[in-house]
Amino acid sequence: MTTTQNSRPDGTGGPTGRVAPIDDAAPAAGGGPAAEETAAPGDEAAAATAAAVDEAGGAAPLPAEAGQVSEKEARQVAEAARESAWDRPSFGKELFLGRFRLDLIDPWPRADPDDVARAEEFLAGFGAYLDAEVDGAAIERDASIPDEVFQGMARRGAFGMKIDRKYGGLGLSNLHYCRALMRAGSVSPAIGALLSAHQSIGVPQPLKMFGTTEQKERFLPRLAAGEVSAFLLTEPDVGSDPARLATTAEPTEDGSGYRLNGVKLWATNGTVATLLVVMARVPAAEGRRGGITAFVVEGDSEGITVERRNSFIGLRGLENSLTRFHDVFVPRENVIGGEGKGLKIALTTLNTGRLSLPAMCVGAGKWALNVAREWAADRVQWGRPVGEHEAVAKKLAFMAATTYGMESMLDLCCLLADDDRNDIRIEAALVKLYASEMAWKIADELVQIRGGRGYETADSLAARGERPAAVEQLLRDLRINRIFEGSTEIMHLLIAREAVDAHLSVAGDIIDPDAGLGRKAKAGAKAGVFYAKWLPTLAVGKGQTPGAYADFGPLAGHLRHVERTSRKLARSTFYAMSRWQGKMERKQAFLGRVVDIGAELFAMSAVCVRATAERAERPENVELADLFCRQARLRIDELFTGLWSNTDDLDVTAAKRILAGRYAALEEGIATPPDDAPWVARWTPGPSTAEDVRRRIPRPE
């Protein structure tokens, strides 16, 4: 789990409090690309909307009882928090507009040689330590990472991988940080989650991007030395809808700080963290902006109680908490970025912080491929190794090609983030979405290849003398990735919102029911100019030229396909917006398919550029890239068919009937869960009545 894990298990956020930002902030992002009530970002109406929301404390006036906000208010909060400017080019944004800007990713970016040398030295030592000193099976059995492992990783600088060297950290690039997480996660996914949650949106990353010099000097050396941080946004009844945030930060009368009161759920590292990033609502007042604000909070402050350590289906060593704040004093100098900036900080941090989760998905794909390859070559059935039977061969081919695709997407995003030449908010979101979905499919296929042994625990296998491949654990550990740091459903909406930003910027007022005739007329004129120039570019392109992209040799045809398909996708999106207009925000299944097509096109682009760049030293990767692209093209064809041939409307109608109880008789004849407790537990303000279950890790000597 990465630091953004506040997604909820119900698909709206997630169990590991680290996903919070993504889940709890961005996801709502207008509820979809063409939100009826959301003004077009980038124009005067959008600015006015954002300003009004900001003046209202970043969430419009909060009702007397937190949580009772309208759909429009919730949408405005998320819209005001998103980054609306596009100051740098974006390959992903252009791709969704039908413009295949291969020049933005080709030639393949290169890391600084000095940074590579330093990083590889660390990775070699870190890997040797993990192999020799960390027992992943014991962590799984005991549901706990030993103190000695915390201390050993601290001595090697693992808690400061992303912290600048001047503050005592290692200053690794995003690329090598993700490789370290991949390595750690292959030994124990719980350790990968610990390190990721601590650094990707725990205290180090927000301070790196938004902290003052004084804050960095005060906190970062402690974290680089081995103290653990956590991110706290999600609440028992607040997941992807930050407008309902109920934790408050009341300014003290003397102006020296704030008093925090509230309860936070699913905080990854929450039971062991000594420094916290806490999101709380500062009430607006005369001369005070107020709004959802980010604070650095000392974990041992008076009034903080870790009331529960949460347990999950996987990641059994995860230190995840339910934490209560009662009149916790936080000095004003611990505010990050200013009042009302909390959600924007969370979302901006995630543009690169989100890369940690796919890093562990790529590691899982590599592990699964290794087990599948060795098992399928060794296991003989019907006179041949099972890997030679076509039914299994197809699974192996999918696993190998997809792992190469995921790794290519991730490496490209990391390299682009490291050289800072592109805006990668769409690309990072795409690789998170794609890797979490594909890694799950890979793990499921591995279970199937292993048969009964795939369903059996590693301990059970070892007990009768067989190799203890923890395949069933892999499946359990990976399942959360489709939920936290933005559930798949939330990621579809988030990416779709960004993908159609150019359309909303010029035509948003046309579909905004609150826009007057003057604004609609102005938007119509603006849209006319934009579409008169843009639409003709979707008719023909380089992908229709037989010899285009010849430098890519056998992969050139795939890049021509990407260019043609990018234009087709843009045409389909434009047609849908013209057809549904403001109602398009409700077409979430359609939007999901659009995003999935874009993800496949991005992956195809990444593998082709990478394989071509590596063909001298790794000629076999051209074969993998070709295989991946052929498989991806079939998936794309199926997605395009589903855009217009589907049961979406019927499914929505059926869901309404299901919710109304029309088919309740179908549930008869079974024992159902007890109904003597609420689905979502309520909490009341006040001091804790529970035992503090926090765990204190002795500092390394």
Jot down its keywords:
701 residues; alpha+beta; 10 strands
What does this structure look like?
The protein has helices spanning about 20-25, 45-55, 70-80, 90-95, 115-135, 135-140, 145-155, 175-185, 190-200, 205-210, 215-225, 340-355, 355-380, 390-420, 425-450, 450-455, 460-465, 470-480, 490-500, 500-505, 515-535, 555-580, 590-615, 620-645, 650-660, and strands spanning about 230, 250, 255-270, 275-280, 290-300, 305-310, 320-330, 335, 380, 385. With about 700 residues, it is of the alpha+beta class. Helix 15 (about 425-450) packs antiparallel against helix 18. The radius of gyration is 25 Å and the shape is globular.
List the SSEs and their pairings.
Layout: H1 20-24, H2 44-55, H3 71-81, H4 91-96, H5 113-133, H6 136-142, H7 147-155, H8 174-187, H9 189-200, H10 204-210, H11 213-224, E1 229-232, E2 248-251, E3 257-268, E4 275-282, E5 291-298, E6 304-309, E7 320-331, E8 335-336, H12 342-353, H13 356-378, E9 380-381, E10 384-385, H14 390-419, H15 425-450, H16 452-455, H17 458-463, H18 471-479, H19 488-499, H20 501-507, H21 517-534, H22 556-580, H23 588-613, H24 620-644, H25 648-659
Parallel strand pairs: 1-4
Antiparallel strand pairs: 2-3, 3-7, 4-5, 5-8, 6-7, 9-10
Helix pairs in contact: 2-3, 5-8, 8-9, 8-13, 10-12, 12-15, 13-14, 13-15, 14-15, 14-23, 14-24, 15-18, 15-19, 15-23, 19-23, 22-23, 23-24
